[in-house]
Amino acid sequence: MDVKEAVIRRRSIRRFEAGGHISDADIATIVEAGRQAPSWKNDQPWRFVIVRDPELRESVARCLPETNPAAGAIRAASAVIVLVGVPAEGAVHQEKPFWLVDCGIAGENMYLQATELGIATVWVSLLDGPRLCALLGLPEGMECVGLFPLGYAPEGYEPKPRGRRQIADIVWSERYGQPFTVDA
């Protein structure tokens, strides 16, 4: 699978095959994709915590609002990767927290790597970050940016097609409002 195919095939999958085990080698490959992400000034303001223990995953799931459907994915996952940001190691420029952008790039790298490996996941960020950080024993100053529960989609599972805006509605040439056209 090439990058273009992984981008197109990537889906937010919250249902996993029962008993599907994700190997440590596959987790290491996914985390390595995150580790290789670019960051402003090569700050690399991220850490990763792997959670496999079912009781701890249950506690992690309780850090989500009851209405968040991803809680079930966390409970059913073979493992969860917690993406942790370290703001003190990143930069803020023009009031933009680049450490958070950097973590987002690392997260997307992991998401695409999981897709290439045939592993289902969903990016979960609607959570009680301080509670999760305390649960995982993170040092003060670190922030839980997102969770990636890992599993295999149930056999025959086909996620709904996702709509996308047309290129003509979101891409401009030189200045906003000037249509971008592709040379024939």
Structure characterization notes:
With 184 residues, this protein is of the alpha+beta class. It has one domain: 3-Layer(aba) Sandwich (NADH Oxidase), CATH 3.40.109. The protein has seven helices and five strands. The strands form two sheets. The chain has a three-stranded antiparallel sheet with strand order 1-2-5, with helices on both faces. It has a two-stranded antiparallel ribbon with strand order 3-4. Helix 1 (3-9) packs across helix 5 and helix 2 (24-35) packs antiparallel against helix 5 (98-116). The longest helix is centred in the middle third of the chain and has 19 residues, at 98-116. The mean pLDDT is 93.
Global mean pLDDT:
93
Largest sheet: 3 strands, antiparallel
Number of domains: 1
Q: Which value, in Å, is the CA radius of gyration? A: 18 Å
In helices, the fraction of residues equals 25-40%
CATH superfamily: NADH Oxidase
Shape: globular
According to DSSP, the number of beta strands is 5
The CATH architecture term is 3-Layer(aba) Sandwich
CATH T-level topology: NADH Oxidase
Q: What is the name of the CATH class?
A: Alpha Beta
Largest beta sheet: strand ordering: 1-2-5
Helix segment tally: 7
Spatial gap, N to C terminus: 27 Å
Question: Could you list the spans in which at least 5 consecutive residues all have pLDDT below 50?
Answer: none
Write out key terms for the chains shown.
14% strand, alpha+beta, globular, 184 residues, NADH Oxidase, 5 strands
Layout: helices, strands, pairs:
Elements: H1 3-9, H2 24-35, E1 46-51, H3 54-61, H4 70-76, E2 79-85, E3 92-93, E4 96-97, H5 98-116, H6 129-135, E5 143-150, H7 167-170
